[in-house]
Amino acid sequence: MSSSTEVDNSTYYVPEQGWYPVFLAFGLMLLVTGLAGFLNDMKNGISGDWTQSIIGLVVVSFVLYSWFAKVIDENAAGMNNATLKKSYVWGMGWFIFSEVMFFAAFFGALFYVRSFVVPWLGGEGDKGVIGDYLWPAFESTWPVVANPNPEIFVNPGESMASPGVMNWGAYLPFYNTVILLTSSVTIHFAHDAIKSQARNKLIGWLAVTVILGIIFLILQVEEYIHAYSALGLTLDSGIYGSTFFILTGFHGFHVTMGTFIIFVQLIRAIKGHFSADDCFGFESASWYWHFVDVVWVGLFIFVYVV
User: Fold this and answer.
1) CA R_g for the chain
2) What was the pLDDT predicted at 259?
3) Cβ–Cβ contacts within 10 Å for residue 148, how many?
4) Do 254 and 95 contact (CB within 8 A), yes or no?
5) pLDDT digits (tens, 9 = 90+) for 232-291
6) DSSP secondary structure code for residue 276 in this structure
7) What number of other Cβ atoms are within 10 A of residue 219's Cβ?
8) Full set of structural domains in the chain with CATH
């Protein structure tokens, strides 16, 4: 290519050709379609097979490990210019924005159901549904614990009827809120340790953050067990059960991913990676973790308290 037509990578970055995106898409296809097939089999009363999903997960894991390892090695070798690093920042920013929209859709569904659908079914407002053709005895209350048709929906236990913060075990949602907010502080301390080049403090604060993430997940599992066994709240418990498990379940998945990501940063810190002016891998992980914490605060307020 002549000098007049060469691309200036200092102003616009053109990545090298590679097969990582192709293999990643293939692995994701195997994983998602395998999971969909498993769920369909379960719905039809057939014993599902996890083989395809496991193969897809192995492919995705291997591709991500190889791809990220290559990026880390290139950065350590000084191959990344300012424009490429800026592309990482924008990429992570748009990824977090997409996650914001993801949870905004679920929070919007919760708001719509609570503020409009349930009151309409109870006969409130101009669009209120009144008549024997539906459920004239339906009560407009939240959480919905007396579903209109018990032949379709399994009603949760009577202990779900009380409003306010649910006394699930020993106020597990409140404990998890304290844990996640504390983890935001610890990962901030880890960032300060990078800026001051305090390697031992960086490793220590990252380790504490990982432990807090694991504790959160353990308590959420305990919460789900209590919801199923003591409260009778399941995915078959109508609109309340659906919104509750979708919101908290997807958030738990994000906490799982965030904990794993921070664990990877811990391994990198132990290996001597990161410096005060070159630590975007850690910074992107901390952005993601702070986002997960903010989402949980919203969940705690609108799912458990209000």
Assistant:
1) 24
2) 96
3) 16
4) no
5) 777 777 788 888 899 999 999 999 999 999 999 999 999 999 998 889 999 999 999 999
6) T
7) 18
8) 15-79 (1.10.287.70), 80-305 (1.20.120.80)
